[in-house]
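## retry 2 of 3
previous attempt timed out at serialization; input unchanged, resubmitting
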Amino acid sequence: MDKMKVWGSLFRCSSASVFFPRLLVFIRVCHTTNSASQEIIISNLVLNYSGPQQTLYQALEATGIEWTPGLVDSVMKRLWNHGPKALLFFESFYYRPGYTHCPSSFDLAIDIAARLRDNKKVWSFISCLRKCGFSPSPRTFAIICERYASFGKPHRAVKLFLSMHHHNCPQTLSSFNTILDILCKSKHVQLAVSLFKTFKRKFSPDVITYNIIANGWCIVKKTSNAMEVLTEMVEVGLVPTIATYNLLVKGFFRAGQVTQGYKFFIQMGERGGNAKPDVVTYTTVIHGLGVNGNTSKARKVFRMMIRDGCLPSVATYNVLIQVLCKKDTVENAIKIFEDMVQRGYTPNIITYNIVIRGLCHVGHFDRAMEFIEKMKAGDRSAPSVQTFNILIRYLCDAGELEKAFEVFHGMSKGCCLPNLDTYNVLISGSFTVKKAEWMVEAGKLLVDMVERGFLPRKYQLHSCPCFLSIDSLSFFWLSTSLVVAADSTIVEAPCCRPHMSSWNFLEVHVLLLWRWFNKLWFIFIIETNFHL
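## retry succeeded, writing output
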């Protein structure tokens, strides 16, 4: 029996006489495969499982696998883009006597629950963490704070940081830098500056602290403020590092101040010492010049760095290939790619993704697929969800929806779960076509993404019913399925009851159903009677 097909039919049966023989086959497969294969098989088993946690635990226990924290973490990472299933797998171990999740597993579960905006479950996991004899670490709080900030709730992130000591995790300079970095990268720079000014006497800011604030101003394209931070840094007796200068160079180019950025780069070379350009500096300048359309000057800087004895990195080649794809020709970019390989550099997944995007942009989908096959053949650069998203996006733009859906369905078979971007691209592509059959597919995708814990965009919830109004039966199925899907994401565990955010999410779909039900009910009755 094909090993990779065992999991596919394992849980699709309800009869015990069928279930247990298949389970025994699965056990043999698990014991005759390596660690990586076990991760894939277990992940697929969980994805195809539908039932209570206790039954899943019994099935996992029956495999006889020696469960280690590393294996659990690896499986959860594979299930990352299916949050409810990942949490189902994590919580199934509550039923196993003697097994205690390690802090890294709890952090993964907390991150997934926070991504699902399940605040109650987040704190339930923290409670379980304490019961297992651990205390929340600075990393745990950083995970939650980052989710709060990304969801537009930076003040909740700050409040959590200020309460860390209540959870037996005192604030340190490192955790202070972390919260500042989270706020700055989520573009809440003013709040980060206020926090910095309030607590700088308590935590004695270091170079990293000032770099974070300067980088925050660069992110929001206020380079003059970033330069003021550099001045203040010197005034308090701190010596700027090459990282400080590099983020300022990047800030100038990000703000579109190409002349100032290049001038600052030249001044760094003249100054020397801590300001002497390194590989990151050259890479930043090449990218900055290239994306602003000056590819000839970017290539000149590339030659300059080699002349100055600074060897380019894979990242340097990546940005050069990227700017040539965007501002020059794909053929010239591929020449650089080939030159990179000839010089002994190993392309990484980012390199391949850049080339694939460039080929797709000019409509060379067959050549893009050739590069994807090269990635599959390699050991270090297997295609990621971002790789497939690039291909799906350009296929949708070209009107090749059938091929886009083929790639989409092939992702799961290859153990690469689609993420939120995948669904958004396919649903948007289906809306663009404005044909009934593709709108039904879009509806199925909406249901599928909700089942996986992803929140649809507002325009998707409004647009899909508009197009499906010509087929009230399809819309009735869609709305009802959305309610069922939202309800199915509510998973109970011994220490985790259904949470308010899940019920609020369910309520949204109930209201959506009611809003359109009145409008389409009359058509629904007529069509039903007509078919009768």
